[in-house]
Amino acid sequence: MIPANLFSRFQLIQNIGSQLRLIATSRVQLSESLYVHRDTVENNPDVPFEFSEDNKKRIAAIMKIYPEGHERAAVIPLLDLAQRQHGGWLPISAMHKVAEILDMPKMRVYEVATFYTMFNRNPIGKNFIQVCTTTPCWLRGSEDIMNCLKKKLGINNGETTKDGMFSLLEVECLGACINAPMMQINDNYYEDLTVKDTEEIIDDLRAGKEPKAGPRSGRYACEPLTGLTTLTTPPTGPGFKVRSDL
Known about the structure:
- By secondary structure, the chain is an alpha/beta fold.
- Helices cover 36% and strands 9% of the residues.
- The chain contains eight helices and five strands.
- Strands 2-1-3-4-5 form a five-stranded mixed sheet, covered by helices on one side.
- It starts with a helix and ends in a 31-residue tail after the last strand.
């Protein structure tokens, strides 16, 4: 026989459960990246990597920024330098070279390279297109931009064209929310995009041209589309609204 106090608890739990709404969640998008290295023909420890003479000078200048005994803090700029030298992606032999220069355990370099999404550990195309699809860009039409690129390039998210000219990747916020929708191609931001703008940018890149970076809407930066709402008059001089007896 169930005690009265225990039975009342069961009833209370049952009543609460019947009043609770089911919680709905959005679909979770998981990364397709493999964070464990697998040797390939073009990416294995036996593939030689050496910094160019110009980059060796850059490394020397970078190392001088950091206090003695803290040179390992230069791991991110050195990895970035290696990636830029190697065509936009970071082979494991380049990580080993950085570890050697900084006298770091290789595992510590791996940890940095796998944590930051700015490091590409597999080959990418000459033009690396990253399309932001976070909320502000999505509300402003990033899906149309992504679909346009898939159709224009003939590839899907995470793929590279057969000629090696373009790689396409859907990414999280790139920090240009007020200029949504936008995409990053290599180091350039292209903002306030329409489908037509996107097609023109790809056509220019295919033709060997460098499309003008920045907003495509005609505004200079991230000022309001309808014009300035503040700071519309010349600044006042010293003493403005200051008491005359002071």
